[in-house]
Write a structure and sequence with these properties.
With about 375 residues, the protein is mainly alpha-helical. The chain is built from 15 helices and 4 strands.
């Protein structure tokens, strides 16, 4: 049985059962490996206080590990486990997240890597430990409450003791860490990072590009005609295998407020999301408004876009970037609203040098770039765009 099929079967077994902690037992799961335990935890709604939400709820494997539920704000942000609370940021994909470097300051003095859009957790395990204790997500009051929930399941109790030692539950912090590390181990599997898109197959000589796709690829990797690869290319040379299409740095690109979301979640017009400056490890005002550059893997099926889900269409995103490089009046209009692009939420610290470093794009080149980004869709999701 392939790993993909195995984990999808586990997903359907767990979500198809009634929402009690015996789900793992009733599914007759054998959690002999850390990745298997992580998979069971990832799909288990009992890891939320109200038994309504799993990791897979906001990171749905059927939609490239993003949240496509209609929460009343066009999927811009996720509902919490109480099915009422609403966040302020779009749930990022965890496709290829395992390749993200830990949060650090690089040799150029720039903040790089980390989990969440502001890099506040160093790695996958840290990220996995956040939602269960977040009051507007899974909403457990404490680590002790999470571990008590795990111990309602004999399957989990046996698996933890087998994998981490008989005394693992004697120390709540150790048990919680074991839980997060198990989820992280699952997220490091090929199930999340298969590198089997048409682009990857093209590199292996297994797919022939259309003329539009080839133009889009040429434009994307060209420093003369676009600025895409300044932020969305990790490897030095175009055509390198295992490209994640992000350099993991942080930028403020002048994204406007998602007013619909702000009205729905009650934060109001005065609230400002300062991005990287919200990270407890960062206290430099020059980082306000910056967010981590996202991967473009599976970008064609992970709408809505930007950190707050303010844009619904991938072409709109390209047009938003293009507005920085054209004086054409029509380029200053958001095609989704018919109005001018909104003002930046944080007007300071905008990466103007990078944004204005390319010539204006015509319609043909804009469409070609979109066609290229569609190539970055994992094979199992290709029916969603075809």
């Amino acid at each position: 049985m392939s790993k993909f099929l195995k984990y999808f079967l586990m997903f359907f077994l767990l979500v198809g059962l009634t929402g009690n902690i015996l789900a793992a037992d009733e599914a007759d799961l054998h959690l002999e490996k850390m990745t298997d335990l992580g998979a069971a935890l990832f799909f288990d709604v009992n890891l939320s206080q109200a038994r309504t939400q799993s990791c897979a709820t906001c990171h749905d494997p059927a939609r490239a590990f993003t949240d496509y539920r209609d929460s009343g704000v066009s999927a811009a942000a996720s509902l919490g486990g109480d099915l009422l609370s609403l966040g302020d940021r779009n749930a990022p994909t965890i496709s290829y997240a395992a390749l993200t470097p830990e949060f650090h300051i690089n040799a150029e003095g720039e903040f790089e890597g980390g989990m969440f859009l502001d890099g506040r957790e160093a790695n996958l395990a840290g990220q996995a430990g956040g939602p269960p204790l977040n009051p507007i997500e899974m909403a457990f009051p404490s680590k002790e409450a999470v571990i008590a929930r795990l111990l309602e399941s004999q399957t989990y109790e046996s698996a933890f003791k087998s994998l981490f030692g008989e005394e693992i539950f004697a120390d709540v912090d150790a048990a919680y860490k074991a839980m997060t590390e198990s989820i992280a181990a699952f997220e490091k599997t090929e199930f999340f990072s298969p590198f089997d898109s048409k682009y990857d197959r093209y590199l292996r000589g297994e797919y022939e590009l259309s003329r539009e796709e080839e133009l889009g690829m040429t434009l994307f990797f060209s420093e003369q005609f676009t600025n895409c690869n300044q932020c969305h290319q990790l490897n030095t040379l175009p055509g390198s295998e295992r490209e994640t299409f992000t350099n993991y740095l942080f930028h403020n690109i002048g994204t406007p407020v998602n007013k619909v979301l702000r009205e729905a979640n009650g934060l109001g017009a005065e609230y400002i999301d300062n991005g990287l400056l919200e990270n407890p490890q960062v206290n430099d005002p020059a980082q306000a408004g910056k967010f981590k550059v996202p991967t473009l893997r599976n970008v064609a099926i992970t709408a809505p876009y930007m950190h707050n889900g303010v844009f619904q269409d991938l072409k709109t995103v390209v047009l938003f970037y293009n507005k920085f490089n054209t004086r054409n009046d029509s380029a200053q209009i958001n095609p989704e609203t018919g109005d001018v692009w909104g003002e930046p939420e944080v007007a300071e610290n905008i990466s103007i040098t990078e944004l204005e470093s390319a010539p204006a794009l015509d319609e043909r080149r804009i469409n070609a770039l979109v066609a290229f980004m569609r190539l970055l869709t994992d094979r199992r999701y290709e029916p969603l765009i075809e």
